[in-house]
């Protein structure tokens, strides 16, 4: 069985020292090893942005896609080879701005894959502009007098779109993040894990200290009596905490994944090589 070190390759990440993305990479590698995967059983599909580089830093199948399009590619990979564990990854600009249409429909489609958003509340690769996740009043070179747009709440949107797995974590909490990625991989259906990942170079507001002071962690006292199968309670918790709740927020274990609902295309009892799909059937997918 592969160890997490076997999910490393010899490519040195060029993220800035201290960037939260390093820990997310480590958490993916640890989670993949912990669930018993071999590198050739994993595909990491990423979009564009600092975060998008992650697919090149993990020893697995990977594709560094185009801006906002990690999810269509990842869904195609999973439907073409359902034996693969598929992780899609990208930043908040990638997934919640240009890619938001794909994000909402991937959530409601519920293909069995894990989507990890590396949320730094800014555009890092293009040197620090306001993203849909930047706070009102947030000053950057694109909003010199402070952002006047409201902040997008991806967790509320995910729940409204029919998500079956919604979680949030903080890059510094490697233990929680690794456990959530493992749970996301094991979940049947689409799992969204939004991860606060500080951009130490351009975001001087949402820093490591800021998150430590403001996060409400369901793995602590805040989670006592919390039931992640209760969708209304999940929405309430997200709104009460101003979107700063971390942990497993919502999981629906009853709804089947997209691929398990397609007639004649069910996963159970079929090894991948046994599945014969005609061109006509494939065109219907
Ligand atoms: Fe990370 Fe920000 Fe540097 Fe990009 S610019 S690598 S997000 S710290
Ligand atoms: Mg970003």
- The count of domains is 1
Distance between the first and last residues' Cα: 34 Å
CATH-defined topology: Rossmann fold
The coarse silhouette is globular
Q: Mind describing the biggest β-sheet?
A: 8 strands, mixed
Strand percent estimate:
15-25%
GO molecular function, one term: metal ion binding
Cofactor: [4Fe-4S] cluster; Mg(2+); thiamine diphosphate
EC number: 1.2.7.3
Keywords: Iron, Iron-sulfur, Magnesium, Metal-binding, Oxidoreductase, Thiamine pyrophosphate
Structure commentary:
This protein has a single domain (4-284), classed as Rossmann fold, CATH 3.40.50. The protein contains 10 helices and 8 strands. It has an 8-stranded mixed beta sheet with strand order 2-1-3-4-6-5-8-7, sandwiched between helices. Strand 7, helix 8 and strand 8 form a beta-alpha-beta unit. The chain is of the alpha/beta class and 285 residues long. Helix 1 (21-34) crosses helix 6 (174-186) and helix 3 (92-98) packs across helix 4 (100-109). It is globular. The longest helix is centred in the first third of the chain and has 14 residues, at 21-34. The structure holds iron/sulfur cluster and magnesium ion. Iron/sulfur cluster binds at residues 15-16, 19, 21, 50, 120, 124, 199-202.
